[in-house]
Design a protein that fits this description.
There is one protein chain. The chain has 365 residues and is mostly beta strands. It folds into two domains: 43 residues, no CATH class; 305 residues, Tachylectin-2, Chain A (5 Propeller), CATH 2.115.10. The protein is 10% helix and 36% strand. Strand 1 and strand 2 form a beta hairpin. The longest helix has 21 residues. The radius of gyration is 21 Å and the shape is globular. It starts with a helix and ends in a 15-residue tail after the last strand. It binds beta-L-arabinofuranose.
């Protein structure tokens, strides 16, 4: 983001110089330009990294036993070259964080699951999530299998922080990345998942058939949709085949790929507020966390706006959770490292308007 801010400032500076320069810029106007630039550069993050001794990202937060547990990716420097497929996100284990209160001490619980203990996994442990049912904690995680295809695995523990024991195979019928498990009020658990580009969702058609050669959608094509599958009673299998989740504009129309400031890219999360279902997600290459509201866990979800503006680093990934009567947004940026693949998780309060819309969060002010 340092680079992004500098770039933005330069663009702003050039733009204003062009406007004023062409008609003879006064020293007062030059001063105004300088002030605008330094204001932009002096913006500060609204919150601090929750831990600084390791890099963490993609925080999925849950309240278990009156404490907050955060299930993040554990970023590391593996020196894998940066590419459009996200090869530089080469994570090898998961570490769970917990805290008794927002702003309180954060505990990091050590290795919860190591890639070497997942028999079918090859590389890249990406954004996980967790759920609890009948005395068992479930860790859901995307990782590439031996064929380099992202699948979603599940591991279990009697403790929220692990260690977790992985099943010997990925969830049957699972694919792509970023699982997010939502428990509805009736006790039904749903998994949302998917991510385009490096997340490989473009290879999977709406009927769940696979085409390794399938390309990203072109701007004139309809955008790819996230997926939902109900979990069965075992919590280790889908009860039904994954389906597309419709994300539409205020007129009920699906987004086109060219509408990349609103269309789904990755990092889906679902929560419920005042009886409505909120589906939030990253727009990827435009770097926002947006949200949409629906009346059913299956959608359709109608686009409403931006939850979180772009953060330092390329990726933007979040979760939303209620704790002791307040709502919180967990997210990440690259404040500690300045490198896209070495991120740090953060938290800030999230507020609703009276009509149920979410107040947009500016991560730097
Ligand atoms: O952490 C690896 C990937 O980066 C996640 O799966 C995406 O959501 C993005 O944050």
């Amino acid at each position: 983001m340092k680079m992004k801010l500098k770039k933005n400032s330069l663009i702003l500076f050039s733009f204003l110089s062009f406007i004023f320069g062409g008609c003879g810029q006064s020293s007062q106007e030059q001063e105004q330009v300088t002030q605008e630039v330094s204001k932009e550069e002096s913006k500060k993050p609204i919150s601090k990294p929750l831990v600084t001794h390791i890099y963490t990202a993609d925080p999925s937060a849950h309240v278990f036993n009156d404490k907050i547990y955060i299930y993040p990716s554990h970023d590391i420097e593996s020196n894998t070259a940066e590419d459009d497929e996200g090869g530089h996100f080469d994570m090898k284990d998961y570490r769970i964080l917990s805290m008794d209160s927002i702003g309180g001490e954060v505990t990091e619980h050590g290795v919860a699951l190591d890639i070497k203990d997942v028999p079918w996994a090859k590389r890249q442990m990406w954004a996980p999530d967790a759920a609890f049912k009948d005395g068992v904690y479930y860790l859901y995680f995307p990782v590439k299998d031996k064929q380099d295809i992202f699948r979603i695995g599940v591991a279990t523990s009697t403790k929220p922080e692990g260690p977790f024991k992985a099943e010997s195979a990925p969830i049957k019928g699972s694919y792509s990345i970023d699982p997010a498990v939502f428990k509805d009020d009736d006790g039904t658990y749903y998994m949302y998942f998917g991510g385009i580009w490096g997340g490989q969702l473009q290879r999977w058609a709406g009927d769940n058939t696979y085409n390794a050669q399938a390309k990203n959608r072109t701007p004139e094509e309809l955008a790819i949709l996230p997926r939902i599958a109900k979990l069965d009673a075992s919590m280790k299998a889908f009860a039904d085949a994954p389906q597309e989740v419709k994300l539409v504009d205020e007129n009920g129309n699906l987004f086109y790929e060219k509408e990349n400031d609103k269309r789904f890219f990755e990092a889906v999360w679902v929560h419920k507020y005042q009886g409505k279902y909120y589906l939030s997600y990253s727009t990827g290459d435009t770097h926002n966390i947006c949200y949409a509201i629906g009346d059913s866990p299956y959608g359709p979800f109608t686009y409403k706006g931006i939850v979180l503006k772009p953060v330092q680093g390329w990726t933007n990934h979040h979760s939303i959770v209620e704790f002791k009567g307040k709502w919180y947004l967990f997210y990440h940026d690259t404040e500690l490292s300045g490198k896209t693949h070495l991120r740090n998780v953060k938290v800030t309060e999230l507020k609703y308007n009276d009509d149920g819309t979410i107040q947009t969060i500016e991560p730097y002010q």
